[in-house]
Specification:
five-stranded antiparallel β-sheet, 8 strands, alpha+beta, Peptide Deformylase, 3 helices, three-stranded antiparallel β-sheet, 179 residues
Length: 179
């Protein structure tokens, strides 16, 4: 079981840097860090978290999708550690949907993302995985990969008019409104 780490917030320079490749996956410190990331993601009701969000500039993120207070309609997947991830291809079709971020508390935005993506990443055991994700899981992957490239969801919105507070977001989804 990992420990809960402090989450970096918007304004900290680490969130705007490209993270470094992970060289030695089997290193005990890397494996312990993955456990800590998983624990932090679950504890904070996230559906994903990237290493820069806990002050570590490495190309690792977790997807841990499940219904929770922040994302009541999230599908079940994970927790899965994805190391040195990349998108290998993507659909031209994009879809806007609500995103939030543990590093940008209190704000949600409508973010356009590719509906379907093909990806590759290494597991914590060093196995190379190639997969295809769509809809919400594709959205999480793209969001977390952005963190590894120094991008936050605010950089992706089309207009500031598509930002809402967390309180308003909960009203919107409770009323069943979609973008």
């Amino acid at each position: 079981m990992g420990k809960i780490l402090e989450i970096s917030e918007l304004g900290h320079p680490i969130l705007r840097q490209r993270a470094s490749e992970v060289e030695n996956l089997r290193d005990k410190d890397v494996q312990n860090f993955i456990d800590d990331l998983i624990e932090t993601c679950i504890d904070s009701n996230g559906v994903g978290i990237a290493a820069p969000q806990v002050y570590k500039s490495e190309r690792i993120f977790i997807i841990s999708s499940r219904p929770n207070a922040r994302y009541p309609n999230a599908p079940e997947l994970g927790p899965v550690a994805m190391i040195n991830p990349a998108i290998t291809s993507f659909s031209e079709e994009k879809e806007k949907d609500w995103e939030g971020c543990l590093s940008i508390p209190g704000i949600r935005g409508l973010v356009p993302r590719h509906k379907t993506i093909k990806v590759k990443y290494q597991t914590r055991d060093g196995v190379l995985v190639e997969n295809e994700f769509s809809d919400f899981i594709a959205r999480i992957f793209q969001h977390e990969l952005d963190h590894l490239n120094g991008i936050v969801f605010l950089d992706r919105i089309d207009s500031n008019k598509e930002l809402v507070t967390e309180k308003e977001y909960y009203k919107i989804i409770s009323e069943g409104n979609r973008p």
